[in-house]
Amino acid sequence: MDSAVVHPNQAAALESLSAAIDGMFTAGLAPTNGADATAMVRELESLSSRIEAAKVDLLDAVDIRGLYGRDGHVSAKAMVRHVAKLSNPVATRRQRTARAMRDMPVTQAAFRYGRIGSCQTHRLALAHANPRARDAVIDNEGAFATIAAKKGYCYFDAKVSDFVDRIDADGTRDTNQRSHENRDAKLVQDFDKA
Fold first, then answer.
1. Which of 16, 40, 131, 188 has the fewest CB atoms within 10 Å, i.e. is most exposed?
2. Residue 110's closest CA among 144, 138, 135?
3. How many CA atoms lie within 13 A of 86 on its CB side?
4. Could you give the CA distance from residue 30 to residue 180 in angstroms, rounded to a whole number?
5. From CA 60, how far away is CA 179, in angstroms rounded?
6. In Å, what is the CA distance from 44 to each residue of 24, 37, 38, 135?
7. C-alpha torsion 155→54→114→153, nearest 10
8. How far apart (Å, rounded) are the C-alpha atoms in residues 149 and 9?
9. What pLDDT, in 10s, does the model give residues 46-67?
10. What are φ and ψ of residue 30, in 5° steps?
11. Is the pLDDT of residue 126 over 90?
C-alpha cells in the first residue's frame, strides 16, 4: 500500500485490516468440526460484506466529490474500474449500489455492519434502478433489509422480484406497446420493365 498518499488515519486502518487478514491466513482456515465451519463461513461472509460496503462507500465518495477527473476519468465508475482492474459488470454493480444506498439508509447500515450480504444489497439496488419501482422500493427498504437479514438469498430474491413485478406490472408492456405502435411497414410494387 502506498501510505504516503493516504491520510494517516485511513492508512492505519487499512494496515490493521491487512494485518488482520494476514492473521486469519496464519491461523488457518481449516475448521475442526461442522459447527466451527458454520461459524467461520458466517463470520467471513459478514466481514466480506463489510469490506464490500466500504468499497461501495469509497466509490460513492469519489463520485460525490468528483475525484475521478484528476487522471482524466469520465466517472467514478470508470476510475474504480481502471484502478481496481474490475470488469465492467462489477464496476456497474458497485456504482448502482452506491446510488441506491444514498436513498436507503437502513439497508446501507445493515450492509456496513455485515447484517445483510452483498448479494442481497446488489439485488435491492437493481430493484432501485427501476425508475417505475424506485419510490416503492425506497418506502419498503426497511422491510427488505429485515427479510435479507433473516432469510436466504433465493427467498429474498423472489420477494423483491415479486414486489417489483407487482409495482411495475405494465413496465415491459409499455415498452412492447410503444414498439408495436412505432412499427411502419410499406409494400411497394416494383414492375420489372424487362
1. 188
2. 144
3. 18
4. 59
5. 36
6. 10, 10, 10, 33
7. 10
8. 31
9. 999 999 999 999 999 999 999 9
10. -115, 90
11. yes
